[in-house]
Amino acid sequence: MRDLFTVQGKLVLVTGGSRGIGEMIARAFLLHGARVLISSRKASACNALAEDLARFGSCEALPFDLAEAQGVAGLADRIEHAYGRLDVLVNNAGATWGAPLDTFPESGWDKTVDLNLKTPFFLTQKLLPALRRAATADAPSRVINIASIDGLSPPEFDSFAYAASKAGLLMLTRHMARKLAGDNVLVNAIAPGFFPSKMTEATLDEIGEDVLEATPLGRLGGPEDIGGVALFLAARASAFLTGAVIPCDGGLSTTGR
Q1: Is 241 exposed, middle or buried (0-12, 13-18, 19+ CB in 10 A)?
Q2: Which CATH architecture has domain 11-248?
Q3: Among this protein's residues, is 83 annotated catalytic?
């Protein structure tokens, strides 16, 4: 029982790990003894954060553009050849696009849906050998998909591709969980609400007060909130949990307010 929440020594990959929620999750794993790999499109930001986080433990930057199939394959190959195994995959890299329904562009749709839904599927697919290699019945490997409460109910914003992709990611989580249970690979999802980040900055500037008023806990999410849920989903404490979606939103989506 004393080791229920430890991630000590686990090898963890966080995509989109150089900022926002990805950085919060990467930092949480590192501070609790995991070996962390962070990947993002911008090499300079990825390398700078890894250098900063390395003060607290083992952290390596693996900059790849996961919006491209070549980047997905390159990241998977790097992990296979450098490590040969992977305990935890956090599919966090994502994008959004806002435009009115009548004029929503195909380019915005493709960019958003590809990165938010296609990339998690094919990156997980290509990393399955490494995840299976690390997995045992007593210590399953984990895939943690970072979705959104916008995938649980339609948002007020004109973010059609984002909401659709996140809803799709929740079904993908359940479907993959069913298929991979026999391989001792657990697949779960977190549906975050509003956290301060570059992605939410413009929205919070516009309707931040309304968000706080609608959130029963009356605040935005912080690093400990999202980090704590991610750690739980990677630890022994969640070993009997797969195909689950955990909202992390201060009650915004779960209380019906």
Answers
A1: middle
A2: 3-Layer(aba) Sandwich (3.40)
A3: no
